[in-house]
Design brief:
Layout lengths: L1 E5 L2 E4 L4 E8 L8 E6 L6 E6 L6 E3 L7 E6 L4 E6 L8 E9 L2 E4 L3 E6 L1
């Protein structure tokens, strides 16, 4: 399993970013995926989950209504559209999946939201 996140950056509050997660070395379309974020001094925070078909999506209360998960199984890519960003969204964002009880996560992409 290989996951590579991209699309992070510095944005002003109220702005938008679209994260991507390129998947390889496994059958991406067969796996549920999720986004997590990590802030220094805090544990990992679950952000969103999406099922293998992309027709069921779930969001944490802190991002619901602002973030949207999607996937393109033909391109082996997971996305996270982030709108109305807030300074508290600043974190390293990871995509993750689980295979045979083991969690696989990419290297993360930094999102910084300035006030």
């Amino acid at each position: 399993v290989q996951l590579v996140e991209s699309g992070g950056g510095l944005v002003q509050a109220g702005g938008s970013l679209r994260l991507s997660c390129a998947a390889s070395k496994f059958t991406f379309g067969n796996y549920d995926m999720r986004w997590l974020r990590l802030t220094p001094g805090k544990g990992p925070e679950w952000v969103s989950s999406i099922n293998s078909d992309g027709d069921r999506k779930y969001y944490s209360g802190s991002v619901k209504g602002r973030f949207t998960s999607s996937r393109d199984n033909a391109k082996n890519t997971l996305y996270l559209q982030m709108n109305s960003l807030k300074p508290e969204d600043t974190a390293v964002y990871y995509c993750e999946t689980v295979d045979n009880g083991r969690n696989y996560r990419g290297q993360g992409t930094q999102v910084t939201v300035s006030s």
